[in-house]
Amino acid sequence: MSDKTLSVWNPVKTDRFLVGAPHYPEHVDESYWERDAERMAKAGFNVVRMAEFAWHILEPKLGTFDFDLFDRAIAMLGRYGIDTIMCTPTATPPRWLTVAHPEILRVDGKGRPMSHGSRQHCDTASPVFREHSRRITKAMAEHYRDNPFVVGWQTDNELNTSMPESFSKATLSEFQAFLAGRYGEIGKLNTAWGGDFWATAYDGFDQVVLPIEFGPTFPSPGHLQDYHRFLAFSTARFQHDQVEILRAVKPSWFVFHNLGGLRDIDFRGQFTTDLDFVGYDIYPMLYDEFQRLGNHAKVQALHLDICRGFSGNYIVPEQQSGFGSQPGFCTLTPEPGELRRMALSSVAHGADGLMFFRWRPAHFGAEIYWMGIIDHDDIGRHRYEEAKRFATEMTALKDKILGTYVRMDVGIAGSDFDNQEAHKTYPIGLPSPQDDAVLLHQYCYDRGIACGFIHPEDDLSKLKLLYVPHWVMWKDEWTERLKSFAEHGGTVVIGARTGTRNEDNHVIRETAPGTSLSQLTGVRVEDFGRLAAPGANGLFDVMERSGGLVIPPNKPAESHRRERRFKIGNRELVGGYFYENLAIASDVEVVAAWSNRYAEGQPMATSRKIGKGQVVYVGTYLTPDLTAALAERLFAPVGIEPLLGDLPEGVEVTMRMNDDRRLLFIQNYTDQPAAIGGVPAGRDLLDDEKPVAGRLDLEGYGCAIIELAG
Q1: pLDDT at 537 over 70
Q2: What is the number of alpha carbons within 13 Å of residue 183 lying toward its C-beta?
């Protein structure tokens, strides 16, 4: 599907809302199967996903295939009106394969081969593993070609989630071949990687090594960048092998992948264009951001908004339904009412299909306490009833929901693989572009302002403001797109350090932010430096030695802290992480200026009129205070306002829309009742189309979908 357009505004092309659960008939006695199928049908499920970890059953020894178990399971489900999505089982190769070919195992940075007994232990770059992947995919596809209940396929399972890197011999040789294809001549590689620094040049591609961490010190940023480009290329190639076979056998099947950790995958390339749509597994109570953001509703919204920015609407092949764990960790447990609310939140942020993980928990293995819709004792309790309610609602509302996109007034530049990786190659203690962007996303989320992530190559015309969070790698054609957006009335905000490195990860030789961005912004960076993180006592929260004097962090001296302050409007704020001193053109307005130390009075943030809009440059990183100050100044003039006039704390609001309709999703993510004011006139599609105007009352974890009038 190389002609596929990647856009945040794309809905999934489907005529039904897929709703169901991953299902593992191999985990229970066959006497349970019909009871499971009957209860799924009563719950309103129309699809299951299966076989992603069953290669050892499907091919118990080389070249001997046995599909009987899954044939019978699929037929049983089909009798109750439930279709099946099959999965290629390549995340868990069988033991007979790794015994015969130990060279296909991944190797970590310390030279240790991965072992059988877990998953994702084989190297997707390995030609031998790719050959076996193609073989099992072809056998399964040909077997299920004419099965009327098999409607689509999932490739592998959460590629790169457990361990994207490999340092195996296969990876090395494939990496060398990748580089030979990319550069053609070893001299070009040496130039790109800065081979004259630390004598890191090579005489031929066969000499190139893999970038080992601290071996004994840091590798070239260009070396690291190309290694991760290779991992993304290798992952896309591995998946393409499977997609090519599936499409050749039966073009009418839909094909997707379920993404987990999002590492070393280039979503703007072949990985995504090969697929009909993308799937994102969402476990709101699992992620690290839970601690930082304070609640799982915000975490879920952030993850799904980031994912939607890659290519538009998606399905959720795995949605957390209950307590989850592996031996080393566990999640919180959704309270009664939260399963349905979290599922509706996924829909509100762009899901056009959803499956609850999982139908029933396993009684053995590394996830025995990863709970599903049915409990260990084979009883369906409140989670079953909530899943049933959700499935019934989505089936009834599919014609309203499908075909709509998620509204965004504030766009954050995201989904660019090179910029994600460029930061990792040289982080120097600074927030990543995505970490910085979280502050703006959360500001908007808390106030009910439509916000999400978008690539500069996408259609920007539906936005009112676009923020670029410190993208060090910049393409001149993006500048033209930003200029056009501003000329038509949009506001562009560009963060510090944007445009300071080229595609080889070299610092540019022009004055930052580079020729095209300087011409757009009217700004040149004269000087820059590091600042303490907000709230820190020093550059790092440890005792530091300065000129032989140890200064306790709880008693910082001003000269030691080197705190930078700035004035914006009538407020004086503290800069965070990084500063730039700016020289400006005559037609540039100073929005904020540094207010202490040697830089007092020098511009920190600027604005330049471009057509009907403006381009703002900010010579530091966001802090909560700076985010609020910029929003107060920039949002109102371009018509950015909350979707609801009176949004209580603990209530989330988003909008899905198209040319025909506007659907306002309102969710109470607390266990206490909420009264929401300022609700525009419409009908609540989750409450028998009851008319709503002005005030809406929601119970704890209650939800509404208001189809707006007019």
Answers
A1: no
A2: 24
At 397-445, the pLDDT tens digits run 999 999 999 999 999 999 999 999 999 999 999 999 999 999 999 999 9
The model's pTM: 0.95
CA distance 235 to 237: 5
| 395, burial (CB in 10 Å: exposed 0-12, middle 13-18, buried 19+) | middle
* CA-to-CA dists, residue 355 to 145, 343, 387, 399, angstroms: 24, 9, 9, 19
Which positions are catalytic?
A: 158, 318
- The pLDDT value recorded for residue 558 is 45
Tokens of 248: 């050749």
**How many other CB atoms sit within 10 Å of the CB of residue 288?**
8
Output b/e per residue, 693-702; b: 16+ Cβ within 10 A: eeebebebbb
Classify residue 448 as left (phi > 0), alpha (psi -120 to 50) or beta.
left
Instruction: Name the DSSP class of 25.
Output: G
Query: Residue 561 — pLDDT band, cuts 50, 70, 90?
Result: low
Instruction: Give the residue numbers of the binding site for substrate.
Output: 119, 157
The pairing of strands 18-22 and 47-50 is parallel
Token pair listed for 636: 């109102």
The fold of 410-638 is: Rossmann fold (3.40.50)
Strand, coil or helix: 566: strand
DSSP 472-528: SB--HHHHHHHHHHHHTT-EEEEETTTT-B-TTSPBPSSSTT-HHHHHHH-EEEEEE
User: Does the domain spanning 18-163+230-396 belong to CATH 3.40.630.30?
Assistant: no
Pairwise CA distance, residues 392 & 207, whole Å: 60
Among candidates 383, 389, 319, 309, which has minimal Cα distance to 347?
A: 319
Tokens standing for residue 687: 């409450």
Residue 333 and residue 322 in contact, taking contact as beta carbons nearer than 8 Å: yes
Q: Tens digits of per-residue pLDDT, 564-593?
A: 999 999 999 999 999 999 999 999 999 999
CA 572 to chain CA centroid, Å, is 35
HSE-CB of 288 using CA atoms within 13 angstroms: 2
Tell which residue, 707, 705, 698, 706, has the closest CA to residue 648. 698
**Residue spans of alpha helices (H) in 402-475:** 417-425, 433-447
Contacts by residues 55-61 (CB-CB < 8 Å, ≥ 24 positions apart)? 55/89, 55/90, 55/92, 55/93, 55/94, 55/136, 56/92, 56/94, 56/95, 57/26, 58/89, 58/136, 58/139, 58/140, 59/94, 59/136, 59/139, 60/94, 61/96
Amino acid at site 582: L
CATH domain 651-708 topology? Immunoglobulin-like (2.60.40)
For 270-284, what is each residue's pLDDT tens digit? Answer: 999 999 999 999 999
Give the chain's end-to-end CA distance (angstroms, integer).
37
Tally of CB atoms within 10 A around 137: 23
**Dist. CA 108–CA 121, nearest whole Å:** 10
User: So what's the pLDDT on residue 552?
Assistant: 40
Task: Evaluate whether 347 touches 665 at the Cβ level (below 8 Å).
Answer: yes
β 674-684/703-708 pair status: antiparallel
Binding region: 119, 157
Instruction: Map out the domains of the chain as residue ranges.
Output: 18-163+230-396, 410-638, 651-708
The answer to whether 434 and 446 have CB atoms below 8 angstroms apart is no
